[in-house]
Amino acid sequence: MKKPVILITGGPGFDRQFHTEARVLNKTYTSAIVAAGGIPVMDLDENALDDYVAMSDGCIFTGTHAFLPDENLSMGNLQVERINRDHKLMHKFIDAKKPVLGICQGFQQLNTAFSGDLCINFKLTDGVEHCQTTHTIKTTQGSLVNRLFGDEFLVNSIHNVRVGKLADCFVPTAYSPDGVLEAYEHKELPVYGFQWHPERMRGDFSGCPYGPNTDALFKAFVEMCISYK
Amino acid sequence: MKPKILIIGEDDFSKNIPHFVISCEYGKAVSKAGGLPIVALDAMNPEDYVKMCDGLLLTGGPDIHCGRYGEFYSEDSEFPYLCTNRENLEFQICKLFLKAKKPVFGIGRGMQILNVVLGGTLYRDITDEGNNLIHTAKVDIKSPKAHITYHKINVNTDTELSKVLKNEEVVNSCHHQAIKELGENFVVSAVSEDGYIEAIEHKQQNAFGVQWHPEHADETLDADGRIFDYFVSVCREGLV
Q1: Is residue A144 packed enough to be buried (19+ CB in 10 Å), middle (13-18) or exposed (0-12)?
Q2: What's the CA gap between B128 and A27, in Å, rounded?
Q3: I need a labelling partner for A171 at 20 to 30 A (CA). Which of A16, A128, B46, B104 fits?
Q4: What pLDDT does residue A209 have?
């Protein structure tokens, strides 16, 4: 069977050699896709987004991992440029009806790309801590996460921003015990978002939160990308 | 259709989290010349990328492990900043592109990879070879940070690269290693004023490299755009 090509967009940072603007991607995302049988690739031209959509069978929008090889370097507008580019790509992939995963920042930005909104630094308003911790989530019957991992399980948690208003095209599929939205899926298309990091809950990752092995999730995603073809 | 150009970036560690890093300048240079830049993200299945892409761009970076060309570090203090994971992918994928007769372009470390893959060797530190330091402003082998200077090169007539480069060009420079013996089937396309190899090309297929950094934007160096145009045009010829 032909392997699907999965675009993984990554985040901004700087090159070590010349300290020029660079793209950075945590390898946990790429290992998860390789293990599930996909071919991971990254784009490197913000003016050729249509070409990347055409050559890819699916896309993952990732969390943030800014790489600064020198403390004197500043991210400046790089995050804003990244979000603008990712928003355009999200619309293009969804228009093409190709499978999409949004993880952490990708989960949040996918929501804002379709007119949802976010609560920044929600611990101050909600009185709950979701950074560098582990908690359970409860899933909705019939959703992808529910089918794969059951009604309730442990996940990692590394975020200070949460989804506020959920975009109309999505339905919520999991919440934390303190009411934070932890997963959603698209009403009609193979588009799934996770506030937690399933790419860091696979069997070979040290620091798994004693939840399920999420290989099954990436396998399911890669299979969706194949069946789209 | 745009030729797809595979780019191998840095594959290393930061804050104990393994990650890929690639300078956006390589993408900009490839797309300006009409190619579609694609970053490789998997060292386990390089043949997938060879099938997918029309050309390979090997990028700049730290020293190649000297064991790759038959030398060894006699003391622990001699070990430079190394990138083992990236190097494994570069060697594997470069061999596969050459075997498939698909174009390969090496920049800086990338040219050295191309040379070593075909059996060539390197000077491990040209600052030790009595040279006049025109190749780098400053070197710290423990750090990947480069320091740029500029110098002239002389381009050999009758080479493929002489079709896109003038007899004499000014190029940027920021390396402390250089090609010593050429790999199999390579010829020298350009040399620096003090005699170091600045560009090489393969006699039988589209595989060439330059020691300077044509992607590192400098409007005064017009050879840089021409060399990317040349690379993308040979990749386009191979498009099926």
Answers
A1: buried
A2: 37
A3: A128
A4: 76
Q: Judge: A27–B44 Cβ closer than 8 Å, yes or no.
A: no
CB A18 within 8 A of CB B143: no
Task: Quote the distance between the C-alpha of residue A54 and its chain's center.
Answer: 20
Domain that holds residue A40: 5-228
* Interface ipTM above 0.90: yes
Chain B contact present for A21, CB below 8 A = yes
Closest CA to B209 of B16, B3, B56, B15: B56
Contacts of residue A157, defined as CB under 8 A and 6 or more positions apart, other chains included, come to: A130, A131, A132, A133, A134, A135, A176, A195, A196
Nearest by CB to residue B24, choosing from A20, A48, A67, is A20
- Report the CATH number at residue A53: 3.40.50.880
- Show the tokens assigned to A128: 């709950």
Residue B42 lies in domain: 4-237
Q: What H or E segment, with its residue span, contains residue B218?
A: none
Q: Closest partner residue to A16 among B18, B21, B30, by Cβ?
A: B21
Number of structural domains, chain A?
Answer: 1
Average pLDDT over residues A82-106: 96
Q: What DSSP letter does each residue of B50-112 carry, written as one string?
A: HHH-SEEEE---SPPPGGGGT---SSGGG-----HHHHHHHHHHHHHHHHTT--EEEETHHHH
Are residues B24 and A22, on separate chains, in Cβ contact within 8 Å? Answer: yes
pLDDT of amino acid B76: 92
